[in-house]
Amino acid sequence: MNTLAYGLLSLLSHSSLSGYDLMLRIQPFWPAKHSQIYPLLARLERNGMVSCELVQQSDKPDKKVYSINDKGIAALQEWLTVPASDPVMRDELMLKAFCMSHVDPAVSRELFAARLEHYRNKLERLCQKIKSVRQVDELEEDQMPSYQSPYFGAYIMLNKALMSCRTNIEWCEWVLAVIPVEEASVE
Amino acid sequence: MNTLAYGLLSLLSHSSLSGYDLMLRIQPFWPAKHSQIYPLLARLERNGMVSCELVQQSDKPDKKVYSINDKGIAALQEWLTVPASDPVMRDELMLKAFCMSHVDPAVSRELFAARLEHYRNKLERLCQKIKSVRQVDELEEDQMPSYQSPYFGAYIMLNKALMSCRTNIEWCEWVLAVIPVEEASVE
DNA sequence: TTTATTTATGTATTTTTTTACATATAGAAT
DNA sequence: ATTCTATATGTAAAAAAATACATAAATAAA
Question: Per the database entry, which stretches of residues form a coiled coil (chains A, B) (predicted)?
């Protein structure tokens, strides 16, 4: 039972999902490819954590829908009592930023302009998603889901993503403001 | 040449460092253990990217100090022209947050209280570091390093870390404010 | 004087993650 | 008709990362 396994159980604790859906939904929090998800789901099924049901579809290929079992819920509850390990962030841009002074400012500006664009797109997607969650949970203006609501966790995470995204945009804009536009003159 | 290899070159582009120092310094941007660093440095040396010199020390064990070569600098300059890949963030707390509603609010509060403490400690370390960088680069109030300064990159990264850390603290405090203190009453 | 910690470097093994290989259905576009 | 994309599931192989195994010098603490 590694972190990804618990992550899958966590997603399944609110609704039954296919491996493909799990793969798409876990991306923002714990990036993983389908080649990691499918074998892990099979293992979780062997361990009795989840159950699987084949669902026929007419408009799309058939799928296997996984549901969490009591054993899976118990594993989650146990897992929630142990402190979360420190977050791990790996950002190539940070490594590039460190040696930026070795290239023309224009090259550096390009890197940060691309990243700014990336965060602006992300912000737009997040705003739409937060709106849809508010709609699904039938929330009024400035109201948030109750602790018991399955949307409580999703809501606080979306809020974090939103806050982080805005901070990152602010930072990129600041960086673009402090990198000289013209090639710096040599005295 | 993977990202970690470029990361090591990036750090070496401003000053010669031992494998041990590189391991400590790359942590905030690209976590890596010494078992990854040492063999990679040997490979970079074989490829002519870096050179190595044995330095005797009297107060501590001897060390191998690595310096970047022209070939290493050229590799960095080339690398800086290709867009940075998307940042990867893996946070177990996010996965736990999603299934929080399955346990008592007190259990959830504990998770976020611990994380808040983590970020507060980080903020303190960052403030000290930013102060020391300002001192080393002999900066006056509200002045920042020039683009050519080797501290420019370090400065903008420290600023990002600072901004992110504050946002995370704000978020943790908000989460602790919205998680009910008492066990929620059942109607 | 023994023990613990920090600094310092390395290898071996295991786990995790990514990339590539492989197949297949359904709809949309060309 | 063919191609492309999204959906859907799987395995094989390679790369990256973490853990464990190993050693050692120097200092500080018990």
Answer: 109-136
Helix (H, G, I), strand (E, B) or coil at B164: helix
Helix spans in chain A (H): 3-12, 19-26, 34-46, 70-80, 92-98, 105-136, 151-178
- Residue A133 is predicted with a pLDDT of 81
Using the Cβ of A30 and the Cβ atoms of chain B, whether some distance falls under 8 Å is answered with yes
Ranges under pLDDT 50 in chain B: 187
Could you give the CA distance from residue B140 to residue B23 in angstroms, rounded to a whole number? 31
| Locus of tokens 């940075």 | B84
Which residues sit opposite B19 in a β-bridge? none
Could you tell me the pLDDT band of residue A187, with boundaries at 50, 70 and 90?
Answer: very low
CATH class of domain segment(s) A3-80:
mainly alpha
Helices (H), B16-148: 19-26, 34-46, 70-80, 92-98, 105-136
* Alpha carbon A63 to chain centroid, angstroms: 23
DSSP state of B85: P
The Cα A50–Cα A64 span in angstroms is 12
Q: Three-state DSSP class for B93?
A: helix
pLDDT digits (tens, 9 = 90+) for A78-110: 999 999 999 999 999 999 999 999 999 999 999
Confidence at residue A139, expressed as pLDDT on a 0 to 100 scale: 77
- Integer distance in angstroms from CA A60 to C1' D6? 9
What pLDDT does B123 receive?
Answer: 95
Cα nearest neighbour of A182 on chain B? B147
Asked whether residue A77 carries a pLDDT value surpassing 70, the answer given is: yes
CB-CB: which of B102, B150, B175 is closest to A76?
B102
All structural domains of chain A with their residue ranges: 3-80, 92-178
Judged on CB neighbours under 10 Å (0-12, 13-18, 19+), A141 is exposed
